[in-house]
Amino acid sequence: MTEILPFPQAAAERLAAQARRTAAHMLKSRARAYARRPMTLDVLYPGLAAAPPEALIAVAEHLLELERKNPRRWFGFGGEVSALNAKAALLLGRALRRAKTRA
């Protein structure tokens, strides 16, 4: 049975759920874009496009750690969030590693 919540709380929960779905969609879209055009990974770190999955994962984790220590926020049009790019590279690296072990 569904719990009846006060309107502000229910709206906040729906908004938070939608934010999680949107973030997951953006992350997966970016990872797919990197898979389609691996050379774009070199923007994150030189030589990353030709790196094996293990190196891709290690570099992405390092970039995420740097972002956690020194967060940057971009506002306006055209701004890229480096944490999103690093997480997408991490997701791609894990998918490539999984595909490599299955082959």
Structural commentary:
By secondary structure, this protein is an all-alpha fold. It has helices at residues 7-36, 53-69, 82-102. The radius of gyration is 17 Å and the shape is elongated. Helices cover 66% and strands 0% of the residues. The longest helix has 30 residues, at 7-36. The mean pLDDT is 87.
Order of helices and strands: HHH
- Write down the overall geometry: elongated
Number of strands: 0
**Biggest pleated-sheet summary:** none
Strand-helix topology:
Elements: H1 7-36, H2 53-69, H3 82-102
Give a brief rundown of this model:
This protein is an all-alpha fold and 103 residues long.
Task: Label this structure with key terms.
single chain; 103 residues; mainly alpha; 3 helices; 66% helix; 0% strand
